[in-house]
Amino acid sequence: MIFNALTEYVLKKVYSTDPDKVILEAQPVKIGPTQPRESVISKEQEPSKPKVAIVVLNWNGLVDTEECLQSLKKISYPNTQIIVVDNASTDNSVKEIKERYPEVRLIENKDNMGFCEGNNIGIMAALEQGSDYVLILNNDTIVEPDFLEGLVRVAESNPEIGAVIPKIRCFYNQQKIWFAGYRRVERYSTFMQPETELTDWGRPSDAASGCAILLRRKALEQIGLFDPRFFFAFEDIDFSVRLKAGGFKIYYTPKSIVYHKAGQSSSLSETAVYYRTRNLALLK
């Protein structure tokens, strides 16, 4: 989703009470089998490292998705598989990705399933093939080669950590932070702020952004996936609250860097405005 000033307002509203006591209408989504059409080729793996599946959702975003995949080709973490879930694109994405990225697992949805269900399909595929962690990554991002080591290192340090988020910089103004965590107690948000000493501190966060988030397998199995009622917008806030209510922690690490172009799929379309407005009612 697009993390913006409206998101900050919603976070403060949701966390106006103890986040550990917040109960949302949204219920955990049960993990079950999925049967989309797919082509599969795995990346070389190193068993000594936890297995990480990287799920990239594409909807008519071939240029951005290709740039994202090119950056993922350069990552140094050895035990990964990249899963691209295509939401019924009409821009020739499927054909081009199949031809140019045979190492990628490509899942083709017959319809546009939205951010939530599209990513859920990728998550379920990742869990079915034994991944220890699932990284949700927006297609309009570029990653540093060592970004995954920093995320996994933090996750492996404490089994209670259910999600780890990187430092997300603005792609077009890389001195500006797009997101680096949120703390309701300290009333600070890093959204669209200049980089400061604060963003160089690893610390707990009360919310994660669906732009880039490493998720522990156990957390997904316990609390479920993204609530498909959201389609997109505020689904990550809902997920963050459920994660914390389930006893898991969210951590931010500055040792992992991702660059976000921001809003290339949804922008300020009428559809985006509709879901952001409607989804406010799904959050208590």
How would you portray this structure in words?
- Helices cover 29% and strands 25% of the residues.
- The chain is an alpha/beta fold and 284 residues long.
- It has helices spanning 5-14, 62-72, 93-100, 114-128, 147-156, 217-223, 235-245, 270-279; strands at 37-39, 52-58, 80-87, 105-109, 133-137, 141-143, 161-170, 176-179, 182-183, 188-189, 193-194, 203-204, 212-216, 249-260.
Give the helices and strands, then pairings.
Elements: H1 5-14, E1 37-39, E2 52-58, H2 62-72, E3 80-87, H3 93-100, E4 105-109, H4 114-128, E5 133-137, E6 141-143, H5 147-156, E7 161-170, E8 176-179, E9 182-183, E10 188-189, E11 193-194, E12 203-204, E13 212-216, H6 217-223, H7 235-245, E14 249-260, H8 270-279
Parallel strand pairs: 2-3, 2-5, 3-4, 7-14
Antiparallel strand pairs: 1-4, 5-13, 6-14, 7-8, 7-13, 8-11, 9-10, 12-14
Overall structural class, as computed from helix and strand content, comes to alpha/beta
**Approximately how much helix is present in the residues?**
25-40%
Estimate what percentage of residues fall within beta strands. 15-25%
Mean pLDDT across all amino acids: 80
Q: What's the CATH topology label?
A: Spore Coat Polysaccharide Biosynthesis Protein SpsA, Chain A
What does the largest sheet look like? 12 strands, mixed
Over the alpha carbons, how many angstroms does the gyration radius reach? 17 Å
Name the CATH architecture.
Alpha-Beta Complex
* Oligomeric description of these chains: single chain
Counting structural domains, the number is 1
The H-and-E topology, N to C, reads as HEEHEHEHEEHEEEEEEEHHEH
The CATH class, by name, is: Alpha Beta
> Termini separation (Å)?
19 Å
User: Overall 3D geometry?
Assistant: globular
Number of helices: 8
Taking pLDDT < 50 over at least 5 consecutive residues as the criterion, the unreliable ranges are 15-29, 32-44, 263-267, 272-281
Number of separate strands: 14
